[in-house]
Hints:
Blueprint (H helix, E strand, L loop, with lengths): L1 H30 L3 H32 L2 H30 L1 H10 L1 H18 L6 H27 L3 H29 L4 H26 L1 H38 L2
Helix pairs in contact: 1-2, 1-3, 1-9, 2-3, 3-9, 4-6, 4-8, 5-6, 5-8, 6-7, 6-8, 7-8
Amino acid sequence: MLIDLGEARLLAADLRVQFNKASDASDRAVLADTDEASIAFAKDAARVGGLAKADLQALGPRLQSLGYAAELGSLRAFEGHLSEYEKVDRDILELAVENTNLKAQRLSFGPTRAAADGFRDALDAVARSTPPKDRCRVDALVGKAVVAVREIQVLQAPHIAESDDAAMTRLEHEMAALAGTARDGVEALSAILGPGAPQIAAATAALDRFDAVSREIVKLSRRNSNVRSLELSLRRKPALTAKCDEDLRALQDALAKEAFTATR
């Protein structure tokens, strides 16, 4: 009996260790700043979670053979809380490895900036090629269009960080209005210089690239996987983790008392 009890105590201790290690790996997957790191930590969470499940499957029959009702009660409570925990943690990890907010951020800092700079450079060329009689009007149109694109860039950051759908919608409406302003500016410049002007074609192409990347940023940001996984990890998961750990601590305490009784 002492041997069985000793094995039960070891299984319970390892179960608690592996459960908490899996929880920590899940947290690291949420906080990772690259796809590779998120995936690696998620795999580690799954691997260690499998070790915890193996301990759980071995511990139940051991406690039944020993006839420990209190310990079985703690184990059953743990299984119930574990089921709730796993549902939340599964959602957390699925969202964490998508990294849509990080991907949107990279697009905003990279391709979007390049397209916006290309648009500015193309419009600068338009202004330089404009006859003196039209220069003041063209400069005003160029400035307005470039500012509109830069303001869209500014709005992308709060959209990526936002978790509220209504707030994101408001930001999208602002960006759409600004995109319309930029597009109207190019069309007005085309009317002055002629649609066949190479500078206008370059500006239009750059604006098209900018719009395409901006739409992709909004799509990724709307998925909000990093924000949602972090919110679940901070708001839902801690209480469930604590309940599971309390069940395992109660199980270990009960087994410790049984060990004391068995040696008397």
